[in-house]
Amino acid sequence: MFVDMVMPHISGDKLCRIVRSMPELKNVCIVILSAIAAEENIDCASFGANACIAKGPFRDIEQHISRLLTARNNKEDLLSSGIAGLESIYQREITKELLGSRKHFEVVLGNISEGIVECTGEGRIVYVNAAGAAILGSREEKILVADFFDFFAESMRQEVAYAFAGLGEHPIALGEETVLLLKGRRVALNVLPIVDAGQRTAIVIIQDITGRKAAEEKLESYRDHLEKMVVARTAELSQKNEQLRAEIRERHSAEERMGEAQREWERTFDAVDDIVALQDASLRLTRVNKATCRILRKTEAELVGRYCYEVFRGAGEPCPGCMEHFASPARKSYSQEIVHPELGRTFLLTATPVMDDQGRISGVTHFAKDISEQKKLEFQLIQAQKMEAIGTLAGGIAHDFNNILAAVVGYTELAMLDLQQDMPVYAKLEEVTRAGKRARDLVAQILTFSRHSEAKREPLE
After folding, report:
1. Of 206, 405, 438, 448, which sits 20 to 30 A from 8 (CA to CA)?
2. What is the DSSP string of 273-293?
3. Cβ(285)–Cβ(306) below 8 Å
């Protein structure tokens, strides 16, 4: 059997493999006649050929055939002498490049995941790549020249054959919308028509979509399930949303109430006419009311962040006993009077600790009242009390002294009654009487001061 390496629809090496796969042709002698023997290193033994003759002049081919027949009859190894006639031809660069392109094309087709099948117009397979053979479930030798339609389930062969029969100039697609089974697998076909020298063939691209369709069906099932879940969840969310809106309204209302309470607190805080200051646990001022700024003649920015003992006492350290007082277990409020060095005013300062949930001091509230006027009044009261005590003492002394004066004046006047006015002693007694009366007037003034008698008012000339 003489076989050319390059033939329409099928290559010579594949035809050799098909022949060798047939038991009834296993002893047939196959001779390759190749026009590309000089450009391609042909390994005839790999695909079952017995000999190879390079195409050249007909007279040379005839001689090579005669020698091969003689060697065949003598049962000689026909391949031992290599390719017959190779020495009489030369390599052609263009043919070599075309063969290189064909090999590149075969490598690409042999490694893609889609099955590629070439069929005649009647559906006979003349080419199949490795992926196509795997999808069709057979070896390449058995697939070639087989009927493409026979690989499909019997109920689907007519559909595929009908599509091939109606193949025109445009590609057709099968298996995406309808179920198309090939060897138990779901496939999709893209059929590309080819017309060459009046002969119609078709390239069929086979995609195994079993996994993809199963995934799509599973996804569709999941989608249906998800839609049901979404409907149920939507109803639940609608209820939750309504509850949330109610909570939001309540929250807004609470925030408004809190805001109003905050504003009311701030109004009350600033309405206090005395110093009110808030400070943290380190005794730094964190907030002061308006009265504090007014009384201390400072802005809030000048006060906030400073230590309380700097602001109220002008000192560089806490008040004596302050830290010890707050460190004690009682942690009660304490008060003390301080004198502001710059203002010269006296304040009654009350410090109250603010506790957190763990019982620790988180801050201190200061109240300071200006008691300068009160201190003045207290001083005046003390002075008045002193004067009242002096008056009481003076009144007692005046009464006793008045009694003494009454005796002195009285006895002096009695003595004067016994004397003559021209007597020298009489004048002296008169002087004693006048001095006693002056002393009596002084006692009357002391009694008036001690409030034991009312002052006698007389007009002044």
Report:
1. 206
2. SSEEEEEETTSBEEEE-HHHH
3. yes
Burial class (CB in 10 A: 0-12, 13-18, 19+), 180: buried
Number of other CB atoms surrounding residue 395 within 10 Å: 19
For the cut 80, the answer to whether the pLDDT of residue 407 exceeds it is yes
373 phi/psi in degrees, rounded to 5: -65, -40
What residues are paired with 193 via a beta bridge? 202
Tokens of 10: 């099928």
To the question of pTM greater than 0.90 for the whole model, the response is no
Task: Give helix 424-449 / helix 372-417 axis angle, nearest 10°.
Answer: 160
Question: How far is residue 418's CA from residue 151's CA, in Å, rounded to a whole number?
Answer: 181
243 token code pair: 């509850």
Helix, strand or coil, per DSSP, at residue 317: coil
| Nearest partner of 18 among 40, 28, 68, 182, judged by Cα | 28
Query: Domain-by-domain residue ranges, the chain?
Result: 1-92, 272-370, 376-449
Look at residue 316 and give its three-state secondary structure.
Answer: coil
Q: In this structure, are strands 346-355 and 334-339 parallel, antiparallel, or unpaired?
A: antiparallel
| C-beta of residue 261 within 8 angstroms of C-beta of residue 281 | no
Highest mean pLDDT: which range of 209-218, 239-248, 399-408: 239-248
Can you give the length of the chain in residues? Answer: 461
pLDDT of residue 95: 46
Name the residue type at position 235.
Answer: A
Indicate the residue type of 420. Q
> Residue 330 in contact with residue 311, Cβ under 8 Å?
no
CA separation for the pair 116, 127 (Å, rounded): 8
Tell me the C-alpha distance between 45 and 160, whole Å.
Answer: 38
Which tens digits make up the pLDDT trace of 76-104? Answer: 665 555 666 555 555 544 444 444 555 55
Structure tokens belonging to residue 289: 């009311």
CA distance 117 to 361: 88
Alpha-carbon gap, residue 269 to 289, rounded angstroms: 6
Q: CATH for 1-92?
A: 3.40.50.2300
**Of the candidates 44, 49, 10, the residue with the CA atom closest to the CA atom of residue 143:** 10
184: left (phi over 0), alpha (psi -120 to 50) or beta: left
Are the C-beta atoms of residues 388 and 382 closer than 8 Å to each other? no
Contact at 8 Å (CB) between 413 and 433?
yes
pLDDT tens digits, one per residue of 336-356: 888 888 888 888 888 888 888
Nearest to 68 by CA among 54, 56, 53: 53
